[in-house]
Amino acid sequence: MRIRDKTVGPRSPAYVIAEAGSNHNGSVETAHRLIDVAAEAKADAVKFQTFKAQRLYPKSAGKSDYLGLDTSIYDIIKAMEMPSEWLPELCEHSHEAGLAFISTPFHEEAVDILDPYVDAFKIASYEMTHDPLLREVGRRGKPVFISTGASELEETRHAVKVLRDSGCNDLVVFQCTAAYPAPADAANVRALVTMRDALGVMTGLSDHTRDPTAAPMAAVALGAVAIEKHFTLDNDLPGPDHAYAVEPDELSRLVAGVRRIEAVLGTGTKEVLPSEEELHSFARRSIFTTRDIQAGETFTRDNIDVLRAGKLGAGLPPADLDRVLAATAAMDIAAETPLSADHVANPNH
Predict the structure, then answer these.
(1) Does an H or E element contain 162, and which?
(2) How far is CA 33 from the centre of its chain?
(3) Domain 274-347 class in CATH
């Protein structure tokens, strides 16, 4: 699938989404700085989140134990809202920086708000069972990334069907562990292979581990077409998503690591590579004379051997040794000559 000027797919470089999320902390200037950091790290896209507290939780929903904060989840979410008025300038800045602009809608109205600006939509893990939202996103016809944290394969299959039936043709399904941060041994990166095979979709990784490179690089080695990672300007900033996000230098390391993995993975075609050309001719073995041989003399292991060619040029391949040993020399041959077919007379019976 295409997102602006880049292709997302198994024959393209992994598409790296720098997830700014709500780490703008209510400051549009911080949001712009996050875009700059994503561009400096050479990510492909920057992503924010679009939600309203009143469309996520009841006010009486209580506190989240995992956050460990003495504040209701409603109030925490309320403080993290991003004003929709920011969208035009953040979109423009992202495009000027060479990044695609993506956001996650958390309610149906947010899809309408985002549609004029985003190059793709992202569905969060906890929204993958929100069929009305999936249908609203799917009918927009834009590329979609969907995370699958805290879900089972059949739930993922259902979400994919809802999106497909709504008109979504361009889809990437992310393996994701819904823990913040996720323990390394819970990343379960191989699940992206399971989903790819079982659902017939392109898959990737939305990584919540604190390590900037291990899970993303493993995912790319397993065929992930896209990687998403939360990032922040500083882990010490206030807010629930900063502590487990990677910092700017780590985001750069992530992208560089992914590109190194892609470089060593190669194309998969088994062939002589340009870097092997010299030794392909220099070190491959051929049949050589080991002393002067006169015309009519029988070839034996005393006068020929299978040697590496060096700069002398290739001769008959080792596979022809038995045939040559049953033949005679068609002419005088000097020592250390690579044998050619012209040097060999009819087999000596």
Answers:
(1) helix 153-165
(2) 25
(3) alpha beta
Digit-by-digit pLDDT tens for the chain (349 residues) are: 999 999 999 999 999 999 999 999 999 999 999 999 999 999 999 999 999 878 878 888 888 776 667 788 788 788 889 999 999 999 999 999 999 999 999 999 999 999 999 999 999 999 999 999 999 999 999 999 999 999 999 999 999 999 999 999 999 999 999 999 999 999 999 999 999 999 999 999 999 999 999 999 999 999 999 999 999 999 999 988 899 999 999 999 999 999 999 999 998 999 999 999 999 999 999 999 999 999 999 999 999 999 999 999 999 999 999 999 999 999 999 999 999 999 999 764 4
CA distance 328 to 59: 97
Q: Does domain 2-265 have CATH number 3.40.50.2000?
A: no
Single-letter amino acid, residue 179: A
Degrees, nearest 5: CA angle 277-279-284: 110
- Report CA-CA distances (Å) from 265 to 11, 120, 218: 12, 28, 11
Q: Classify each residue of 212-221 as buried b or exposed e, where b means 16 or more C-beta atoms within 10 Å of its C-beta.
A: bbbbbbbbbe
The token pair that represents 137 in the structure block: 């996103």
Closest CA to 45 of 84, 78, 4, 12: 4
Question: Nearest-5° angle of CA 235, CA 258, CA 6?
Answer: 105
How far out from the chain centre does Cα 117 lie?
A: 25
Give CA angle at 174 (173, 175), nearest 5°: 125
